[in-house]
Specification:
328 residues; ARM-rpt_dom; transmembrane helix; Armcx_regulator; mainly alpha
């Protein structure tokens, strides 16, 4: 008697799930031994990128095995295992099975060697196609996997085709939802370099909207994206021209330090671009609610910066001083 396809897929996952348990143990061991995070060059603490964790595991960034030495993960999840997972992902329409596979692939993609294997097996497009599945949990797990995969610059060249789709998901998702946060994490990683910033230009108003509508977790995550964008001089005009009437309210000592620091870096980056364009006639095009108007010739903004010089945190005070010097 022929077994149902769904039953066969679940049986196929049993062995891989066992490997996943051992893989998880390896990840814990790697974390304890102080392995390095698999980050592309140029990642910073305030913008930069980060890896996605699996449900029930630590939220700290995944650890990569030491480069140039033995890789313990290879004895747990090798290329044939990954190939089988990708095949299963392509062939099943069972959303619960899709979730299991995506979680395992996401954990696998925490390691740089597996990021390359997944790309070489054509897995980036297989995983990316899961964004079209109309199930929130599947989309979230897909974004977690894409996030980890995007920590590889070669992968980013292929994953750029999903930027618009992810931006749309972030915009359409419920504010502060896990799906929205997963999308923002992917956009944080993909915006570490300037190469794909132009693809996010039309979504800047939505990022700024989330900055004021979201909770602290969302604010921190969207600021990571905005900081990355603001570091690119080509994006300055788009950011400065955006409406952000509440931006001034974030320059306050009562604001969460993680948020305040990123807002200050965001402002410092844009102020640097403004100083390069002093006297430009285009400045006359900015209206009073724009980011430009908040950061330019605003006496209340100046007062707030002066007050923040007395902030309890030395890092905040240092960043405020940099911003003030940038204005001179």
């Amino acid at each position: 008697m022929k077994e149902p396809a769904g039953w066969t897929l679940r049986v196929g996952l049993v062995g891989l799930a066992a490997a996943g348990v051992a893989y998880g143990l390896y990840r814990v061991t790697s974390r304890r031994s102080g392995g390095a995070s698999p980050r592309p060059k140029g990642l910073g603490s305030l913008g930069g990128g980060e890896a996605s964790g699996s449900p029930g595991l630590s939220s700290s960034p995944h650890r990569a095995p030491p480069q140039g030495g033995s890789d313990g993960s290879k004895s747990v999840l090798e290329a044939p295992h990954i190939k089988s997972l990708l095949h299963l992902l392509e062939s099943t329409e069972d959303s619960s099975v899709q979730e299991q596979i995506l979680v395992t692939l996401s954990n696998s993609a925490a390691f740089s060697v597996n990021q390359d294997i997944i790309r070489n097996l054509g897995g980036l497009s297989v995983i990316g196609e899961m964004l079209s599945v109309p199930v929130t949990n599947v989309k979230q797990k897909t974004l977690n996997a894409l996030n980890n995969l995007s920590m590889n610059t070669k992968n980013q060249e292929e994953l750029k085709i999903y930027i618009t789709k992810v931006c749309e998901e972030v915009e359409a998702s419920s504010v502060n939802s896990e799906l929205q946060l997963a999308g923002l994490r992917f956009l944080t990683n993909i915006s570490v370099t300037n190469d794909y910033h132009y693809m996010m230009t039309s979504f800047i108003p939505n990022f700024l909207h989330l900055l004021f509508e979201g909770n602290e977790r969302t604010q921190v995550q969207v600021l990571k994206v905005l900081v990355n964008l603001s570091a690119n001089p080509i994006m300055a005009e788009h950011l400065l021209n955006s409406q952000a009437p509440l931006l001034l309210s974030l320059f306050d000592s009562c604001i969460n330090k993680d948020i305040l620091l990123r807002v200050l870096v965001f402002a410092t980056n844009l102020t640097k671009s403004m100083s390069h364009d002093k006297g430009s006639a285009i400045h006359n095009l900015y209206n009073e609610d724009s980011v430009f108007s908040t950061l330019s010739d605003n006496s209340l903004f100046t007062q707030k910066l002066a007050s923040l010089l007395h902030h309890y945190d030395a890092e905040v005070k240092e960043q405020v001083a940099k911003l003030i010097m940038q204005q001179c």
